[in-house]
Design brief:
This protein is α/β, with parallel strands linked by helices. The chain contains ten helices and ten strands. It is about 40% helix and about 15% strand. An eight-stranded parallel β-sheet has the order 3-4-5-6-7-8-9-10. A two-stranded antiparallel sheet has the order 1-2. It comes from Paenibacillus piri.
Length: about 280
């Protein structure tokens, strides 16, 4: 169980991935993303999660350079967008991301959404990029169990990570069990429910542990074995979000949070999206 911000999980290919990272979805390119990433790295974060479609890879790259932290101590994730899916177009998309980030090697490259009729070809491209050493690990995002089974059945390499919407109102127990049994690391996007933390149980547990509701949720992620990447541009919040390693939720309290599940999404449904 993660006890320090520097703690990592080991992916099925042996690569070490930090348990906690900074997400930069909807963080504006330029000063805003540069400041957020540098604040996070200054607070001890070593994992930064971006995507081609976020439009802020260049700023992330600038922040990495300006941080003064050696490249090999950082773990950088980006994702191929839906319109770039397909074999050749995915290979080209990674080149664009590498140039924008200013990085020779990406630590983790993900398929952003399971685009029907395209994600298997896209996965073939990710396997090639992995074998060529352009990326250290490959995975998927927003894949349901049936998408994962589909990819695994026809691939040489199983996904190392599946990044999905995961929070107390959408605890994805079946998917989490499938990923666990197939050595696929589950990772949570929007772990803080896009700020919808006004819940009596979370408030009660926050008072009990002397923490904020956000910190309770992030600790719940970690104790459930889920990598988490809360997004913030506020330096105080960025620091607060990583101050989750000095307490442990009881098994009883974890069970209570698990029971909040309503299968409620704040983002799109991976089985029904039109972008």
């Amino acid at each position: 169980m993660a006890q320090n911000i520097s703690d990592t999980t080991t992916l099925h290919n042996g690569v070490q991935m930090p348990w906690l990272g900074l997400g930069v979805w909807k963080t504006k390119e330029g000063d805003e993303v540069i400041h957020a990433v540098k604040s996070a790295i200054g607070a001890g974060y070593r994992s930064i999660d971006t995507a081609a479609v976020y439009g802020n890879e260049e700023g992330v790259g600038i922040a990495i350079k300006q941080s003064g932290v050696p490249r090999d101590e950082l773990f950088i994730t980006t994702k191929v967008w839906n319109s770039d899916q397909g074999y050749d177009s995915t290979l080209k998309a990674l080149e664009v991301s590498r140039k924008k980030l200013g990085l020779d090697i990406i630590d983790l490259y993900l398929i952003h959404w399971p685009v029907k009729g395209k994600y298997k070809e896209t996965w073939r491209a990710l396997e090639k990029l992995y074998k060529d050493g352009a990326v250290r690990a490959i995975g998927v995002s927003n894949f349901q169990t049936h998408h994962l089974k589909d990819v695994i059945s026809e691939s040489e390499i199983a996904p190392m990570v599946n990044q999905v919407e995961y929070h107390p109102l959408l605890s994805q127990q079946e998917l989490r069990a499938f990923c666990s049994s197939n050595q696929i690391q589950l990772e949570a996007w929007s772990p803080l429910m896009q700020g919808n933390l006004d819940n009596p149980l979370l408030s009660e547990l926050a008072a009990k542990y002397g923490k904020s509701p956000a910190q309770i949720v992030l600790r719940w992620d970690l104790q459930n074995g889920v990598v988490t990447i809360p997004k913030s541009i506020n330096e105080k919040r960025i620091r607060e979000n990583c101050d989750v390693f000095d307490f442990t939720l009881s098994e009883d309290d974890i069970a209570k949070i698990n029971s909040l599940n309503k299968n409620q999404r704040f983002g799109a449904d991976p089985d029904n999206f039109n972008f």
